[in-house]
Amino acid sequence: MDPTTAMYIAQGIHGLAYGMILFLVASGLTLIFGMMDILNLAHAAFFMLAAYFCYQFLSMTGSFWAALLLAPVATAFFGILMERFLLRKIHAFGLMSQLILTVGVSLVILAGVKIFWGTESLPVKIPPILSGLVLIAGLDYPIYRLFIIGLSLLVLAIMALLLYKTRIGKIVRAAVSDADMVNALGINIPLVFTFVFGVGIWLAGVAGVAIAPILTVYPGLEAQMGMDAFVVVITGGFGSLRGAFIVSIIFGLLSSYGVQFVSSLAPVLMFAFMAVVLAIRPMGLFGERE
Amino acid sequence: MMNKKVQWILWAGLIVILSLYPKAFGIYYTNLFVTFAVFAVYSVSFNLLLGYTALFSFGHAMFFGAGGYGTALALKHIHGLPLLGAVGIGLLAAILLALILCPLVVRVTGSAFSMLHLAFGQLMYILALKLRNITGGEDGIGGFPIPPLNIPGIVSINMKAPENFYYFAVVVLGASLWIMWFFTKTPFGQIQVGIRDNAMRIDYLGFKVTQTKAVVYVVAGAFAGVAGSIFALFSNLIAADSGFGIMVSFGAIINTLVGGLGSFFGPIWGAAIMQILEEVTTRYTDRVELVAGMILIIVIMFAPMGFAGFLRWAKLKWLAKTAGKMNVGKVS
Known about the structure:
Chain A has eleven helices and two strands. Chain A is mostly helical. The mean pLDDT of chain A is 84.
């Protein structure tokens, strides 16, 4: 295969890997919004927290796999604490108070991270089995990127099964369309909310761990991912998992090919895409509500 | 409640305090006050949208930045431009941006409005970063000449002296505040409040909802532009982060909510409180983010109506206590 095609494919893999990570973060955001009407601006802070937990668990246990398992769960625990003791109390005050509260929480997390781990970027080493390149059909692929894509697809499959094949998934889907009605049917909606919030944060946590070896762990992770994930959710339509998935992949590819062709304007592409979509459909590609 | 005489005395007192302020507190606090005044005007202009018309913008910084960059670019490229001309260009830049955006954004409401603003705000931010040869990228535009304030034939005041600039800023920003206050009190301003409370009813009463929103939008953008313009002159620098940055947009939201939504003076309280907090926390600790985050959480958990709401509550309490002695009038 000639080198140009190889380069295109390599860029495509990078784009897909980034798109998948983006989707992991954005799916939690959109799920939480769709069900609870909460715009969680601290979502990216939890994503960053998970990366730090990954670093911590890795240096404690020495095993990346243990970190991959434990860090998202630990992050989800903090997320549940926030939902239970902060967000639930102010649910009656509407969208704006929630925004401010979540901004406050993200600032506290950012400060906490700086206190515990400092501001320098910390390296995360991946196990040897995931490093290096693999040769498929005459092309070298970085294993770790393929691993990220595979991991995300696995998480996606688990989520799909959970949402569409189980009782709790049915309840969650019903609550997305009308939480009050489900509550009136005798289902403990606050508990379901807490569960969904935890799962959303857990997804962000998985993404945080997955990205830690590529970008290293530093406080700027939050800003870098937060805006992208937010834009994905907006463009895909609030509460729409399908929209989040499609737009994540588009953005992943846009950013990787954008860097290659119009490197200085690559970040503009994403926002330009968003502006065009919103100008035509103010509720996003697959959004149903204003 | 307050009779005219007391009001006049209070106004006179305020003017005396403001004019003696630089002498009494020295240069450092004078500059601090200018920063506060800039963000107070900016937050009030944001509140014209949010508190009075229920348009929640995530990207109000783009007007602030447009004003700042407009003034900075004008002073850098046009030789011999007078000071007021530079501020005027900043104002025009913000108005122009608002005019371009308003046909698109006033059609939508609710979260779609917020999201569109987030998108455009970020677009402006990235453009400011990337169009390096015009905007100077991360470094922004700095060191442009600050012309003296010239009133031909009468006086020429050097604006590089912080004290002189203080008076200039206070007059311009004070006038902006007064115009905005006046604006909310006109019948037109009352229609705004009507739109916030029940847009359909206003529509049925025969007022034009979309057009009203557009006018409010442009006015809010214009005054944010004035604030940005003064800010650029004051720091002699405007950069992507200080002009278009997301924290500038959030700053307005935070000031408004901390101070109190729906009250004209709320955002001013908020700006003052946040400024003082920042000042105090930077003096005693370098964990500014932690303190700011904690304050936001505490305010939302325990005083969701903000400082103005707290004042109103305290006033009601006090009135209830002394109700027997005095005639309870309008409380608002």
